[in-house]
Amino acid sequence: MKVEAGHFDDVVVRGNAEAVSILSSTLIDNAVKYTDRGGRIRVGVHGGSSAELRIEDSGPGIPANDRDRVFDRFYRRRDALGSGSGLGLAIAKEIATRCSSTIVLGSSEELGGLKASVFFAPVVVLATSGSPNGDFPDEAQHIEPGEAFIAWPPVSRIYK
After folding, report:
1. Which backbone phi and psi does 122 adopt, to 5 degrees?
2. How large is the average pLDDT for residues 88-111?
3. What is the value of pTM for the model shown?
4. Per-residue H/E/C for the chain
5. CA pair distance 82, 100, nearest whole angstrom
6. CA 57 to chain centre
């Protein structure tokens, strides 16, 4: 199996660092689980009106009529490969909702399998006078105490 780094824009998203890590790990783990040994997985981050974490694979994909249902707790497709409880995507969706984000499942045009995209809510920059400790971009100025600043490529810090 080949795991590729796709396109990585520098973006800033707002959310709990641990939760976003679990969300991305769950989607990547699913791609690994359902992609054959000789297959491909691509992970990337795209900027724009909202940041998008995109995971694509060459696995069997999920038929369009099952894409909403796979987010239900304990749901597993009858032809699902391997073992599992049917909780992974339900947990991922709950995390995305709590982070004001959305998960969209589709088909990967290039790899032929599933494309899972997480669209994060846009971050509004309230101050641009320099970063709190000199090592984060100006976008980090608006982070509230106890909230995580998350940048891609992955860098996170919690301000207290």
Report:
1. -60, 145
2. 93
3. 0.74
4. CEEEEEEECCEEEEECHHHHHHHHHHHHHHHHHCCCCCCEEEEEEECCCCCEEEEEECCCCCCHHHCCHHHCCCCCCCCCCCCCCCCHHHHHHHHHHHCCCEEEEEECCCCCCEEEEEECCCCCCCCCCCCCCCCCCHHHHHCCCCCEEEEECCEEEECC
5. 31
6. 14
77-95 pLDDT per residue, tens: 776 666 667 788 999 999 9
Instruction: Give whole-number Cα distances, 122 to 47, 78, 139, in Å.
Output: 10, 37, 12
Confidence class of residue 144 from pLDDT cuts 50, 70 and 90? low
- Kindly report the CATH number assigned to the domain that includes residue 110: 3.30.565.10
- Contact criterion met (CB below 8 Å) for 35 and 1: yes
Q: Is residue 114 part of a domain?
A: yes
Name the residue range of residue 65's domain. 2-124
Number of domains into which the chain is organized:
1
Residue 145 domain-assigned (yes or no): no
Whole-angstrom distance between the N-terminal and C-terminal Cα of the chain? Answer: 41
Tell me if 136 is assigned to some domain.
Answer: no
Give a yes or no: residue 35 inside a domain: yes
Mean pLDDT over the full length of the chain: 78
